[in-house]
Amino acid sequence: MPVSEEGFLPTAAAAAPEEPQQTDFQLVRVKSTWCRVKKGETPSNLKDKIILSEAKIGECVSEGGISWTIEAPIYFCYKVVETHNILDPSNPTLLWGHTTDTQQLELNTGGKRRLRRFIVIDEVVDELYGSKVRSYFEENNVQHKILALPTTEETKSMDLVLNILQEVQKFSIDRRTEPIIAIGGGVCLDIVGLAASLYRRRTPYIRVPTTLLSYVDASVGAKNGVNFLQCKNKLGGYTPPVASFLDRSFIQSIPRRHISNGLGEILKMALMKHKGLFDLLKSHGKYLLDTKFQSYSGSANRGDAALQTTRIAIETMLEELAPNLWEDDLDRLVDFGHLISPELEMRVLPSLMHGEAVTIDMAFMTYVAHARGLITADEKEQIIQCMRGLELPVWHDACSWTLIQAALRERLRHGGGMPRMPLPTGLGVAEIFNDISEETLRGAYKLWVKDCRTVLEEGTAAL
Ligand SMILES: NC(=O)c1ccc[n+]([C@@H]2O[C@H](COP(=O)([O-])OP(=O)(O)OC[C@H]3O[C@@H](n4cnc5c(N)ncnc54)[C@H](O)[C@@H]3O)[C@@H](O)[C@H]2O)c1
């Protein structure tokens, strides 16, 4: 086209970029084929013969070309089940409790094909419960492979994930019908969860927690992961199990310190959103420690304390996790105690357990909340006393001001430039803050050191 001088002059029509044309399509399946249909234009004669997907394709045609926007909701459904006698061969939960697919159930229980299961179990748990686990599968005529591994914070790595995957490949499981079973503490469940999510892109798995912490926390959400380059849970994903089966009788064999460790995570939920749970921990904490959550060993009233404590801890956790399974919303109350603790836990490995590191973080943050005027001195004292009553540490020498600064910088980097600091604003209520000044943090740190380090030194001197 010849270009005249006038040709360079913008005319009204040439200057205005064309409006992009947006068309929204639904997806329908007719027989075996999926196809796009403009929204609202499904032929009425097909309406009862088609399957309508929840996915959508938006097509945008503009001067620059064409683009498609895909909206594909991903649906997860998983069960968290409190059960008893899970290793009793007559209890079908471990084999069938995860499935609601009655057709599959009938097919598998019809005896046409021998059941198969791949089980990963923590080495210590294997020593304690391995013979029962073996009897369970033998008596149910299940072809099985039990892989016992040393699943500890130090071994929580990709190496162990690959180790599991090699064995899974050798055993050759059917990913549609043969979920991998993980039996152990939070470390074991996290490693197996990651391995399962990688095998054939997503293989169903079942969690059987054997520590208090994994009973109330690691079994409840969707996350899995391993440590990487000295950083806590740096590699991982959001793939929930098909089910978590919680049997509190496993907890009876964990050492007292591990009960405290689990109580640390329970206290987190109490401080963030449930005053009643806080009161339970304050009044029954010692009993729960002494009886290791075995409610039948106490009076009815005390027994209820164990049941109520785990139930409220799980329910409050589920309330916070279920609407935000993939952590798209970074404002999470359940991050309380997890701002400084990842740095601290990895720095002093293996001297602090996860729940202990979380409690030290919560103790410092309690002082921050007080310094900011969110809680009274009496409330601060009640929280610290409750931690001590649960035999949890409220201080650690390695938790220096430098470490706190480094951890908070890391938090900023991953929080979209905001600290998103959950802090108690009373007992059992909390909010997320982004405006805590360095001066407040420093003031809180000084007072925390003064109050809590002194007590530790006195305690140590007395030993
Ligand atoms: N995925 C999540 O959402 C989530 C949530 C919280 C914590 N976690 C992870 O959980 C881990 C901590 O879990 P944990 O506290 O259960 O620690 P753990 O898995 O290391 O177990 C602690 C120790 O207890 C032993 N043990 C386990 N069960 C036992 C039993 N019944 N009797 C005797 N000994 C037993 C284990 O051998 C281990 O040495 C951390 O790595 C943390 O990151 C994950």
Describe it for me?
The protein has 463 residues and is α/β, with parallel strands linked by helices. It has 3 domains: 17-71, no CATH class; 79-254, Rossmann fold; 257-462, Dehydroquinate synthase-like, alpha domain (Up-down Bundle). Helix content is 44%, strand content 19%. The protein contains 16 helices and 14 strands. The protein has helices spanning 5-8, 12-15, 93-96, 102-109, 123-139, 158-171, 186-198, 212-218, 256-273, 275-291, 300-321, 341-348, 354-371, 377-389, 401-414, 438-462, and strands at residues 21-30, 33-38, 50-62, 65-71, 79-82, 116-122, 143-149, 180-184, 205-209, 223-228, 231-238, 243-246, 421-424, 430-433. The strands form 4 sheets. The chain has a 6-stranded parallel beta sheet, with helices on both faces. A 4-stranded antiparallel beta sheet has the order 2-1-3-4, with no helix packed on it. Strand 1 and strand 2 form a beta hairpin. The chain is globular, with a radius of gyration of 27 Å. Mean pLDDT is 91; it is low at 1-11 and 456-463. Bound molecules: nicotinamide-adenine-dinucleotide. Nicotinamide-adenine-dinucleotide binds next to helix 5, helix 7, helix 8, strand 10 and helix 9.
Structure in a nutshell:
The chain has 463 residues and is of the alpha/beta class. The protein contains 16 helices and 14 strands. The longest helix is centred in the C-terminal third of the chain and has 25 residues, at 438-462.
Keywords:
Rossmann fold, 463 residues, 6-stranded parallel β-sheet, 3 domains, Dehydroquinate synthase-like, alpha domain, disordered C terminus, alpha/beta, single chain, 16 helices
